[in-house]
Amino acid sequence: MNQRQGTDAVHAGYRPSGDFRPMLPPLHNCAAYQFESHAEAIEKFALRQAGFTYSRTGNPTVAILEQRVAALEGGAQAVATASGQSAVALSLLALTQGPKHIVVSSSLYGGTVDLFTDTFSDFGIRVSFVDQADPAAWAGAIEEDTRAFFLESVSNPLCTVADLPAISAIGHEHNIPVVVDNTLATPLNIRPLDFGADIVVHSATKGLAGHGSVLGGVVVDSGKFDFSDSTRWPQIAAPRVRLNNASLLERHGSAAYAMLVRSKFLHDLGPALAPASAQGILTGIETLPVRAAHVQRSVSTLIQELADHPGIAAIHHPSLRAHPSHELAKKLTPKGTGCVLAIELAHPSLVSPVIDGLQLISLAANVGDTRTMVAHPATMTHCRLSAEQLLAAGLNTSTLRISVGLEDPADLLADLTQALDSALNRALAPQTQGAS
Asked: How do residues 258-275 score in pLDDT, each as one tens digit?
């Protein structure tokens, strides 16, 4: 039975069963699992039989989450991890498998940029940053050993919507899988796999969980990318010692990539999602459709009411005609782009007074919470980017990121307005005193 997303958010991956038939997915808080026989253990450890062996690579509660997110994204398989950062890392390590090259958007969350510019270089992975909005730049950056494109469906924090059909077509023309971080938009607003992407990653900490109470990540595979070239994709299509000289593709077919992420990188590096965290994310996902609708209305209200405030030089959101992604957003994300908007203050000197003047909205480095939060990317989430990288990402020292929560939008507007008014009045006070 094909279900709509609102139904999948509540039911996908779980139906009550067993003696007690609990309505909520049970918490299987264990490290290991008993085998019926030695023969069963042999088959499961050899990856010839499905099932659980040790919770580092799989757990019943975590498996429900994986199935639910895969259903929401329209994917074939999913692998949950301990955080969004680990989901990004594992998804790309599985594709590069050594000193290869990837092409990525220059408009990314700062922590992802840290991973690419610092840690990935330790693995010998070379990274080329390109303008997300320029398909020709993606094509021009491809090298012989390019093994992945990576971008955000909606960029953090300026909300640039990616031209997924165009970028995916370029990747596929060169046998390059396209990996998309769908954290900000969530599958309620866009399903990247529907527009040509091959793999989706999430920081489930954010919109999926929705309450700022747990960390988690998810890698979702479409199961459609052609990994059959054993010269280009030996980690998937060539025989492996771990599989008694069988290949993952031979053993697992369209699930081969997801099995590589799970059986090698999750198993060997160990960023497993705790069962209790999986349960928390599952609970959050149940209300995702309701939360997403409320947040979208609040975002629209704030944009409309703050547009003419003298303390704001610009608002960055694709619902505005002036935003470079406005037309693309109408096609790809007609329901909205998520909880984030960015505002450009009239002067950098207003940043600290505005932030410190907020009474309801919190200064915190997270998005997708029930509580509205503000962050200053240049000194917080993107503080390790160079001046050139900040410029390429479209950020400056006047930019504030706002993650809109579930409060009444009138109260959020009142808090932002009083903080802006107060900061602006204090900035103008010395000029007034000097004139008198």
From this structure: 999 999 999 999 999 999
Q: Could you tell me if 297 and 209 lie in one domain?
A: no
Which residue reads 């050139």 in tokens?
Answer: 388
Domain count, the chain: 2
Report the percent of the chain where pLDDT is more than 90: 89
- Sign of torsion over alpha carbons 81, 83, 87, 93: negative
Cα angle vertex 39, ends 38, 41, to 5°?
65
Helix (H, G, I), strand (E, B) or coil at 325: coil
| Position 428 confidence tier, pLDDT thresholds 50, 70, 90 | confident
Range of the domain at 234: 5-284
pLDDT score recorded for residue 123:
94
Q: Distances from the Cα of 419 to the Cαs of 330, 365, 424, in angstroms?
A: 32, 19, 8
137 and 266 together in one domain: yes
Q: Work out the angle at residue 3's Cα, subtended by the Cα atoms of residues 195 and 187, and round it to the nearest 5 degrees.
A: 40
- Cα–Cα distance measured from residue 424 to residue 311, given in angstroms and rounded to the nearest whole number: 6
Helices (H) and strands (E) in the chain, counts: 18, 12
> Are 66 and 177 members of one domain?
yes
The tokens describing 116, both together, are 């690419």
Longest dimension (CA), the chain: 91
Please say whether the beta carbons of 318 and 159 come within 8 A.
yes
Do 118 and 263 share a domain, yes or no? yes
- Give the model confidence (pLDDT) of 362-399 as tens digits: 999 999 999 999 999 999 989 888 888 888 788 889 99
List pLDDT tens digits, range 50-65. Answer: 999 999 999 999 999 9
